[in-house]
Design a protein that fits this description.
- By secondary structure, this protein is α+β, with helices and mostly antiparallel strands.
- The chain has one domain (5-44).
- Helix content is 35%, strand content 29%.
- It is built from one helix and two strands.
- The protein has one helix at 28-44; strands at 5-11, 19-25.
- Strands 1-2 form a two-stranded antiparallel sheet.
- Strand 1 and strand 2 (19-25) form a beta hairpin.
- The longest helix is centred in the C-terminal third of the chain and has 17 residues, at 28-44.
- This is WGR domain-containing protein.
Length: 48
């Protein structure tokens, strides 16, 4: 909305209400880079 992109992350226990974090970026490219960065961090910790 209004020319910005948001990265929405949610985590928590299965079957329960999770925690939600919304990060707003000025461009789609920055949001994509943040998504890839978070994905790499998760892979290093053993998540699939």
């Amino acid at each position: 909305m209004f020319g910005e992109c948001s990265l929405v992350r949610e985590w928590g226990r299965i079957g329960r209400a999770g925690t939600v974090r919304i990060e707003t970026y000025s461009s789609r490219g920055l949001a994509d880079m943040a998504l890839i960065s978070k994905w790499v961090q998760k892979r290093k910790r053993g998540y699939l």
